[in-house]
Amino acid sequence: MRFNRFIMIWIVLLALLASAGFTAQPTQAGNFTLLNNSGSTSSNWVIEGEPTLIMNGFDLTPLGLTFPITLDAVTIALNQTVPDIPVQVVVYEDSNGGSPADARLVSQTEVFLQSTGVARVDLPQAAVINAPVVWVGFYLQPGFRFWADEQGSSVLSYWGWSSGTTFDLSNLASAEILGPSDGSAPVNINMGGVARITAEINTGFGSGTNQAGVPIGTQIEGDTGERLALMDLYPYCGDRVLYDTQDLRVTANAAFTMHCRADLGPYSPGTFINADQLPAPSSEWERRGVLYEVFAAGDYQTASGNSELLRVPVTHCMRPEQSELNTAVIGIGYGAPREWEILPSQRYGEWICAEVTHQGFLSYFVPRTGGEANLNADLYFSGFAYLEGINDNNDGNLRCGYRYIVHYSVHNEGFEATPESNVTLQFINDRTGTISREYNYVLPPVLPGDTANFAQLNFVTPSTFINEAHTLVLRIDTGNVVSESNEGNNTYSRTGFFVTGIIGGCP
Question: Which of 26, 175, 300, 342 shows the smallest number of beta carbons within 10 Å?
Fold first, then answer.
């Protein structure tokens, strides 16, 4: 035998999902959540003996969908896990309904389910469905316990196993036992309800999709009535970023926390991980708004060992500028070096939302029309410019007529390399406004997302206005060679330089 039965009240999250019969509900990942469950009470079932497939079938016909659709995430409610044993998550499409023995496998993913509660699995590649019935299953090892509702005898949940061994998941007919959980042969198990397994689907996205139909760079319009009340603001990232606390407290079983800091612009990457999936070239995307960094603390890592991958995705929402609301999509920047990944994004009122899978940089993007006169680039000085003395006595002042090295950095905020231009240095007397020294340096092409560091030799301090305050001014592209997206941030200035005389006068 492979099961024991324990009756328990399902209190936490599943009561929110309860409905009468099959329903399709709005969700923040796909367009709809497929749900067969009803009621708030649950029975607990344990896998014993050999690996066992537990599946729910969903009839898509009542939804009146246009195929193909994509299924990108699934959940199962667990009471007990075997953390170190992998679980196979499978999705089948079924053209004729009835028994899934002849259903076609369209997705198989191996995962480790570490925590009890509602375990959510984002498929690494969305399953494309072209049939009116879809089956979603978990091939569980002995020791797993899962929850089922108590709506009564049902054929919506199926069991499958082969005594003392495994079977071929790509061919359900190869299972020794395969049948519904309504007490009938060959399974002979009456669960008295339906396994608490759900699936999230997307129902079409127009252009801008990858081969699996996942929306990359194309915003999906979600239900404008969707409540975001469970979303919360980060303490240090203003009022334009929300995150789903329930993903952390319930789905992640409070194993980790999320945090945020704002405005790290000079570190913004200039390339995309999924550039080949975007509906337009990388140079036709602009990052807008504040650059945030979201990061995790606690037991957030997965069994894969990827230090940036979160064990469960955490929904984040951003509020773009009103003029960009209809086209904005969310991106997450991660990796070494970091690159942007544009995420499937949905709009809810004034917010756009996406499932954030990694810790890293967070921002939103808008597509360019392709007819812009300016480059998709923005050059500006990054960090702190300073003078390093060659023959200075390091007393805090500059010596008249001495030579110094000028240090500065230029960052290219954008996704297009800039042509060669220049940087002009001016030393200006504060009292009179007189330019007492001026130099021009070559600024080589700066790659997208790159920060170029420079140390220019032989800057000589002025021989006039001795013992007076001066300001150092640096300007990018004084000849207007580079047509940038923002021409208003090309100047850097630093005050407080004093030029002192030396014994014997100043040359």
Answer: 26
| Tokens representing residue 291 in the block | 């650059």
Higher pLDDT, 48 or 70: 48
Q: Is 433 exposed, middle or buried (0-12, 13-18, 19+ CB in 10 A)?
A: exposed
- Burial-class residue 324 by CB neighbours within 10 Å (0-12, 13-18, 19+): middle
E strands, 299-349, in order: 309-318, 329-334, 339-342, 346-348
Q: Is the peptide bond before 337 cis (omega within 30 degrees of 0)?
A: yes
Q: Is 181 left (phi over 0), alpha (psi -120 to 50) or beta?
A: alpha
CB half-sphere exposure, 503, CA atoms < 13 A? 0
**Residue 108 CA neighbour count, 13 Å, CB half:** 10
pLDDT classification of 419: cutoffs 50, 70, 90: very high
CA-wise closest residue to 268 among 332, 180, 196, 208: 332
In this predicted structure, the answer to whether residue 457 has a pLDDT above a threshold of 90 is: no
Q: How far does CA 10 lie from the centroid of its chain?
A: 31
Tokens encoding 261? 């800091």
Lookup: tokens for 469: 């305050």
Residue 52 has φ and ψ, to the nearest 5°, of -135, 135
Q: State how far the Cα of 369 lies from the Cα of 347, in Å rounded to an integer.
A: 21
Beta-carbon count within 10 A of 72 CB: 24
CA proximity to 473, closest of 504, 490, 494, 501: 494
Question: For residue 258, which phi and psi values (nearest 5 degrees)?
Answer: -120, 145
CA distance 99 to 320: 47
Asked whether 132 and 60 are in contact (CB, 8 A), the reply is yes
Structure token digits, residue 378: 């923005």
Are 421 and 279 contacting, i.e. CB atoms less than 8 angstroms apart? no
The pLDDT value given to residue 207: 30
Q: Which residues, in sequence order, are CB contacts of 345 under 8 Å at separation 6+?
A: 215, 219, 220, 328, 329, 330, 352, 353, 354
| d(C-alpha 180, C-alpha 193), whole Å | 11
The closest of 166, 178, 79, 165 to 135, measured between CA atoms, is 178
The number of residues making up the chain comes to 507
Is the pTM higher than 0.70? The answer reads no
DSSP 190: B
Residue 64 is predicted with a pLDDT of 76
What whole-number distance in Å separates Cα of residue 285 and Cα of residue 414?
8
Please give the C-alpha separations between residue 325 and each of 222, 240, 245, 473, in angstroms, as whole numbers: 13, 13, 24, 38
Q: Is the pLDDT of residue 324 over 70?
A: yes
